[in-house]
Protein: NarK/NasA family nitrate transporter
Amino acid sequence: MIVPTKTQQHRALGLSTLAFTLCFAVWTIFSIIGIRIAEDLGLSDTQLGLLMATPILTGSISRLFLGIWTDRYGGRWVFGILMLTTAACVYLLTFATTYPMLLVGALGVGLAGGSFIVGVAYAAAWFEPARQGTALGIFGAGNVGSAVTNFGAPFLLVALGWEATAQVYATVLAIMGVAFILLAKEDPVSANRKKDEEQRSFLEQMAPLKDLRVWRFSLYYFFVFGAFVALALWLPHYLIGVYGLDIRTAGMIAALYTIPASLFRILGGWMSDRFGARRVMYWTFIASVVSTFLLSYPPTDYIVHGIDGDISFTLEVNLPVFIVLIFTLGFFMSLGKAAVYKHIPVYYPMHVGAVGGVVGMIGGLGGFILPLTFGVLNDVTGIWQSNFMLMFVIVAAALAWMHYAIRSAERVEWAANEEQTDLPELASPQLFYPLNRQPDEDKSTS
Structure:
């Protein structure tokens, strides 16, 4: 393998991060234009939630195939063609006039979300393992594209209407697609990877999915990424409904959540390299459990029957407290997103695209399922805070499973009287991939 220079590394990382930022901005466009469309068509919260979530479905499912294609063909062409295809879909969306037509158009818009795994596989190939966590953290900061939409799209929407806003997005993404093909270089392991992938069948590429560990990582990412996307989509609507804000103010406050929740992913990558992914995941889940519990509390009036009469008081999360809590939640979710993807090149160095595609797909499905569920919960329960109640249940389950798995792995370490790594499953050879174990050993994975 040819060792890339620093300039080559920075070039690849800069181009892929910029491309991913623009793709992510397109992927979450319905968080803003969806509100105007809902007003025009008289949509319910459930219908609006489905419209917001539909692009996330395509972006999630496509990650599996795009990851495999990137492993086989390299990120330069896959990334460039993906952006051009998505730009065409966004432009065609502006011709939709009915709700079913908008849902079909939203499926095409969702291809932008598949860019994540393409960029992960492309960027990781340029860096040595000791720096991959930081590099992928910087690349993952492209999530800030949702803040670009939350902050900028409302002003375009008010000035131009939703159709012209979508056309502006399509034009910018098409320009970036052409620029990426012209400026990006083939990654240094592309030739070896192509030869290796061509010798393996699809089933061999998917072999790591037999590890339960992959699905546990997927649950982590379902929360730290899927819930992040869902909340980025839902927050403007939530803020308008709960606090009576106008769309521009709601968009700017939502940006206060999405900007740090994206940029701090860089810090999460560095912390995962420096302190270990295990610690970062614990910090993420514990802070998220506390934050979502507090955000779940609906405004409640209490009457205490005192000695001298009734004492009344109200508990509610006012707007300043809400902003602090949502900022805290976004910060720790950002750390967790980087920590999850720190694991994958370590465990599955020859299957980053395939395994990362599956983890990204499941995480992205969270971005599809959760906004839709938020809308249904609103319509069924009539409680705005029900979305945070659901998020609390998910993160509590992820924390419990992670802690159980780590404790199980630590028993192997204790038996050997040593701790070999911060990543617990790597502490013993029988728990490590590649899949060269016997069937009895496979059953021992957690």
